[in-house]
Design a protein that fits this description.
The protein has 305 residues and is α+β, with helices and mostly antiparallel strands. The chain folds into two domains: 86 residues, no CATH class; 190 residues, Pseudouridine synthase (2-Layer Sandwich). The protein contains five helices and 14 strands. Strands 4, 5, 6, 7, 10, 11, 12, 13 and 14 form a nine-stranded mixed beta sheet that branches. The protein has a three-stranded antiparallel beta sheet with strand order 1-3-2, with no helix packed on it. Strand 5 and strand 6 form a beta hairpin.
Length: 305
C-alpha cells in the first residue's frame, strides 16, 4: 500500500512509492492526458488547498481505493486521489491510574488536562477507565480515530493484567475462545499466562493484598474494545482483575514512556500508522519495536484546556 501523507516537496518513501515532486501549494496547471471510455482528453484538476497529488503512473490496483474512515483527509477530484500536505497530530500517552480518559472534570478524578498541556485540537481515540493504566492515543484527526476505535477494523489491543488466583487450562481456553458478556460472545483472543511479574512502575494506590489468595499475570491480545471488556472477561472465568495496563494498540507501543508522560509521533511515524490502517496489517509486528520506542516524552503539567 503506497498512500502516505506528504510534507513540502514529494519524496520517495519506498521503492515504487512515487509521489509528485511538487508541494501542494505549487501544483502545476499543466494538462495531463488521461484515457477515458470515449478516448477523449481530460484535464487534471488542481488539488484542494493543503493537499498534494498522488502520482497516477502507479498502477491503480496498488493505490487501492481507501474510504473516508480508512484514510486521513483523502480528497478526490476528477477521479484522482489527493493526500494531506501535513500529517495529523498523534500523541501517545501513558495514562496513569486514577485519571479519566477525558478533559472534562468529574468529581474528584483527575483528567487528561492534568497530564498535559496538549494541543487544543486533540481528543482521545478510545478510552481506559480511571482504574486502568497504559497506552492512550490522542489525535486531531477523526479518520485516524475511527481507524483505531471502530470494531470493523479489528486493530489488536494488548493488555497485561494481574488477576486473583492462578488460572487453569480451562479458564485460559475460555478466555481464548470467547466468553459471553451481557448476552454477546467475545471474539477469539490470544491469552498467555506469564511466568513472572512484569516490570511496571508501582501503582500509586496499591492493589488489595490477601495473603491467602495468590495472584497471576496474563497478557491478552484482543481485536475488539468493548466497555471494560478485559475486566468482565476475567471475572466471567472466576479470576477478577486487580490491575490492568494496556501496552499496545496495533503498532503503537508504550515503550519509552512512564506513567503521566507522553510524546508526539513524528511525521514518519504518522505515515506508518496511516499505511498500516489502509492495509489492515496492524499487529504489533509491522514496525521494528513498534511505534513509540523512540523520541523524548512530554512532561506532565497543567493545561488550560
Amino acid at each position: 500500500m503506497i498512500l502516505a501523507t506528504v510534507r513540502g516537496r514529494g519524496e520517495i518513501l519506498e521503492e515504487g512509492e512515487a509521489l509528485l515532486k511538487r508541494p501542494a501549494n505549487r501544483f502545476s496547471r499543466t494538462q495531463r492526458r488521461m484515457s477515458s471510455k470515449n478516448g477523449a482528453r481530460r484535464t487534471a484538476s488542481r488539488p484542494p488547498a493543503g493537499y498534494a497529488f498522488q502520482d497516477t503512473n502507479v498502477p491503480r490496483k496498488s493505490q487501492g481505493n481507501p474510504t473516508e474512515s480508512q484514510h486521513s483527509r483523502v480528497a478526490s477530484v476528477a477521479g484522482s486521489l489527493y493526500l494531506p500536505a501535513m500529517p495529523a497530530t498523534v500523541i501517545l500517552l501513558y495514562k496513569p491510574f486514577g485519571v479519566l480518559s477525558q478533559f472534562t472534570r468529574e468529581g474528584e478524578w483527575k483528567t487528561l488536562a492534568d497530564c498535559g498541556p496538549f494541543p487544543d485540537t486533540v481528543y482521545p481515540a478510545g478510552r481506559l477507565d480511571a482504574e486502568s493504566e497504559g497506552l492512550l492515543v490522542l489525535t486531531d484527526d477523526n479518520r485516524i480515530k475511527r481507524g483505531i476505535t471502530e470494531p470493523r477494523f479489528m486493530h489488536p489491543r494488548t493488555y497485561v493484567v494481574q488477576v486473583e488466583r492462578i488460572p487453569g487450562i480451562a479458564a485460559l481456553e475460555r478466555l481464548r475462545h470467547g466468553v459471553t458478556i451481557e448476552g454477546k460472545r467475545t471474539r477469539d483472543a490470544e491469552v498467555t499466562l506469564l511466568g513472572r511479574e512484569p516490570d511496571f512502575p508501582p501503582r500509586p494506590v496499591p492493589i488489595r493484598f490477601r495473603k491467602s489468595v495468590p495472584t497471576a499475570w496474563l497478557e491478552l491480545r484482543l481485536t475488539e474494545g468493548r466497555n471494560r471488556q478485559v475486566r468482565k472477561m476475567t471475572a466471567a472465568v472466576g479470576h477478577p482483575t486487580l490491575r490492568l495496563i494496556r501496552t499496545r494498540i496495533g503498532d503503537l507501543s508504550l515503550e519509552g514512556l512512564s506513567p503521566g508522560l507522553w510524546r508526539s509521533l513524528t511525521a514518519g511515524e504518522v505515515r506508518i500508522l496511516i499505511r498500516s490502517q489502509l492495509s489492515g496489517s496492524s499487529g504489533g509486528s509491522g514496525v521494528a519495536g513498534g511505534i513509540g520506542a523512540a523520541g523524548p516524552p512530554g512532561a506532565g503539567g497543567a493545561s488550560s484546556r
